Amino acid sequence: METYNQTSTDFILLGLFPPSRFGTFLFILIVLIFLIALFGNLFMILLIFLDTHLHTPMYFLLSQLSFIDLNYISTIVPKMACNFLLGNKSISFIGCGMQSFFFMTLAGTEALLLTSMAYDRYVAICFPLHYSIRISRRVCVLMIIGSWMTGCINSCAHTIYAFHIPYCKSRAINHFFCDVPAMLTLACIDTWIYEYTVFVSAIFFLLLPFIGIACSYGRVLFAVYHMQSAEGRKKAYSTCSTHLTVVTFYYMPFAYTYLRPRSLRTPTEDKILAVFYTILTPVLNPIIYSLRNKEVMGALRRLTKRICSVKM
After folding, report:
1. Terminal CA-CA length for the chain
2. Residue range 159-169, pLDDT digits in tens
3. Which of 6, 93, 298, 301 sits at 20 to 30 Å (Cα–Cα) from 101?
4. C-alpha 296: how far from its chain's center?
5. Which contiguous run of DSSP H or E holds residue 84?
6. Dist CA 85 CA 56 (whole Å)
7. Cα–Cα distance between 292 and 202 in angstroms, integer?
8. How confident is the model at residue 76 (pLDDT cuts 50, 70, 90)?
């Protein structure tokens, strides 16, 4: 049985990988997923930047999503991998606070950004003649800034409170990153009031955006159903199904984790669900948006031709 120094101010991350061959296999798999997510999101950002055909509000929002996912997975996986390789599970108090802050900032920003992307598709399909007015460059920039600012303010509030709670129990966090709900179990005071604020934040950042996205896509699917053009219907269905896939993978595990009371949660279940929104979603987003998007594939072909012509 492992023993930890309880007099230290450092926290201990018990991690995701069990000390066995299966743990080694899982570690290798996670590192490969991380590399795919890293290069996939970098590729999407560069492709959107280099191809003028993708300089539209939809792809500007998509480039922001890739930027968030790039930082999102980089906040968690490198530290988790280092801990496994070095056999040192500790993380400093400041390091834990920074990881928690960046995680909550990026998570909240992505939740709101996905809502903005749903609104963009709603306006494009239901009000195509008004699209350039309702989703102008200025509106697009304001949606992005608003998402970042709201996510950052929410994260600041939670991080400051969580790291001022006295921790007098074990410093071992039964998770693979500094997740605030997992840390609350180590507190030596009653945290029910703070847990209530976490619940309220989850409603604001997860439940309400998900309801808004579901309603907007309900209107979109209704409009698509009445379209005269078969090609237009096919393109709209493809765009909507792509975005709904991303939304489902992100919101559902997140909401299921944070909207349940502590008494109904288990550390193992929380860690499995966290894999979806911290590791799998960042790698799936560039794959889904590239393979299922004709415009992105067209941009890739144009970029390939440009590179080949330069070499020749």
Report:
1. 63
2. 998 888 888 76
3. 6
4. 21
5. helix 57-86
6. 43
7. 30
8. very high
| CATH number for the domain that contains residue 260 | 1.20.1070.10
Whether 3 is in a domain gets the answer no
Token readout for 227 is: 């379209």
Q: Dihedral of CA 153/159/162/163: which sign?
A: negative
What per-residue string of b and e applies to 16-29 under the rule 16 or more CB within 10 Å gives b? Answer: bbeeeeeeeebbee
Kindly state whether residue 143 falls inside one of the protein's structural domains: yes
What's the distance, CA 250 to chain centroid? 7
Mean pLDDT score across all residues of the chain = 86
Please tell me which residue, 227 or 281, carries the higher pLDDT value: 281
- In eight-state DSSP terms, residue 9 is S
Long-range contacts at 180-189 (CB < 8 A, ≥ 24 apart): 180/100, 180/104, 181/257, 181/258, 181/262, 181/265, 181/270, 182/267, 182/270, 183/11, 183/96, 183/100, 184/262, 185/262, 189/165
Instruction: Provide the domain count of the chain.
Output: 1
Residues in Cβ contact with 181 at an 8 Å cutoff, skipping those fewer than 6 apart: 195, 198, 257, 258, 262, 265, 270
| Whole-angstrom distance, CA of residue 162 vs CA of residue 3 | 25
Q: 250 with 207: CB under 8 angstroms?
A: no
Global pTM value: 0.88
- Residue 5 in domain: no
Which value, to the nearest 10 degrees, does the dihedral of the CA atoms of residues 296, 280, 115, 261 take? Answer: 170
Residue 55 lies in domain = 11-311
- Joined tokens for residue 157: 């509030």
172: phi then psi, degrees, rounded to nearest 5: -85, 110
Whether 176 is covered by a domain: the verdict is yes
